[in-house]
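Practice set, problem 2.
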Amino acid sequence: MDQLFSLAADNLISPIILSFALGVAASLARSDLSIPEAVAKGLSIYLLFAIGFKGGVSVAAHGIDATLGLALLAGIVLSAALPLVAFALLRLMTNISRLDAAAVAAHYGSISIVTFVAATSILESRGVDSEGYMVAVAAAMEAPAILSALWLVAKGGGEGTKGMDSALMREIMLNGSIVLLVGSFFIGWATGEEGLAEISSFIVSPFKGVLCLFLLDMGLVAGRGLRQGGGILRPGVLAFGVLMPLIGSVFGLAFAMALGLSAGGVALMMVLSASASYIAVPAAMRVALPEANPSLYLTLSLGVTFPFNLTLGIPLYVAVAQIVTGG
């Protein structure tokens, strides 16, 4: 327990978390602080490329083995199954419609790549190694949750859904974040340590500084969502936004332990299972479930679950992973 409190305290006073807190505070105070959209887009492109490239380099050094294939399979199963758990929990804890519950559930089966990036940064700062192929697992967990959400809606009558047409498939498979993450992963894999040495001054040294600026922008966005979503965040909905990440992390822990991952790998699998998408899934929901309420699923994923994971969740997952693995 002391280890958990110490890790949480260290995390809360890190530049990464404080940058996010500054953004939330500025937004709630109605400051005119803002980061231009083009700059924010550039920051996200940099982070996705850097984390994907470094993951590919790690896989090149590690080599392909059965554990990699099993980890990918585990990620796909988790992404498909967690929306079913989230949907059941939402129907139990709230009175939102089946359509909205399915749309929210999709977000909690998919992943937040920024939460993943923050977790990898914290692990690196603490000298905790993790499997490089977890980046590939993150990419594999983006889409299955969306298919599960569509199945949940279809099972209830299919009202408000456009189904799995070519437009939705394109939205899912060619989403910019997935393309960049997977593409940079393969570039890192193909070029290996030599490729990393060539551009290390670009993707290694500036990484945490860029992450701080990006999380400042995320804080501004989250603060606006909290300010505008007061009527949406009823007690049951708020409780779900905190409880579901904890439930998801337990599933991730079980799968990671079964795979025999390292302490860092276990922590990252827990983070992936606990996070909620606010980039790829909202874009897909606009196409697949246009009648669902975007204010509800965006405010929950970005305004509640994201801050919870960033401030309290990640330290908890890392501490648990180290305890169960002895790492």
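Problem 2, part (b): a different protein.
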Amino acid sequence: MKTTLTKTISLAFLAASPLALSACAQGNAQEADRFAKVEIKTEQLTDSIAVLFGAGGNIGVSYGPDGTVLIDDQFAPLTPKIQTAIGALGADPVKYLINTHWHGDHSGGNENFGKAGALIMAHDHVRERMAGEQKSGRGNDPASPKEALPTVTYHDGIKLHLNGDEVHVKHMKHAHTDGDSIVFWKKANVIHMGDLYFNKVTLPFIDLNSGGNAKGVLAAAEKALTMVDDNTKIIPGHGPMATKADLMDYRDMLKSVIGAVEKARGEGKTLEQIQAMKPAAKWDTNKDAFIKGDAFVEAVYKSLEMPAHKEGDHMH
């Protein structure tokens, strides 16, 4: 029997891989229409950094004399619209591309940008996952073509010295997936959290199939809070721009739900009994959310069943 979590993931992952997506778009006019109607909206954050909202993960753009840096790139059919939005900023074509993790709504445009000459960077596990077939809730995601794969990968992180700023890319282990990175522009005081942070649109999605763990998402929020201040502009993976106060609320929600599930589990309650207690109800307010309360509680419960990950773990 499929669990709530699996059903939610299968719906959500319908268009999560670049290849499946293009096949899907060709065979399905509705899908093609969905992308035809997407508008890319730009929000300027500083003189040289903007965020693009479209369909899929929020995109960070940093531009200047050293070239344009893109953080995530949504779905393949949207590449021309994204390129137009970048051009409208007065920015050059993308020279560097960083993926915050492997999911297709953040890396679906990789092949297009790679072929156009962008240098793609990501955590080791992003390349490993994209290079092979991945199991997701709706079946399998095929391996990505060579041009879509990150050519520069790292384990702990990487620093880029570009456009008068220091860009700190840091790996957050076993959280949304096993290959998540946050990207922090030190001088500009802007941080891109990828899917370690869903702001106000859904409860967190923990991709257990990709090495994700709810405890890692909490640890990542705690870590990010040590890096930001009241003036930091926070780009979430999905949802509107956020502040430190918003991220603190998110951290508190994670703490509360994980704590409640952990306590109930310790008392011997089953997953179904814990779901019936509705520990996430206070935050489970969007009826169209990607992840609802029961699915989130299930992911937390399953995260707590997992053995602690060792430092330097390789992908399984």
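Answer key, part (b): The CA atoms of residues 15 and 21 lie 5 Å apart. Residues 244-266 form the longest helix (23 residues).
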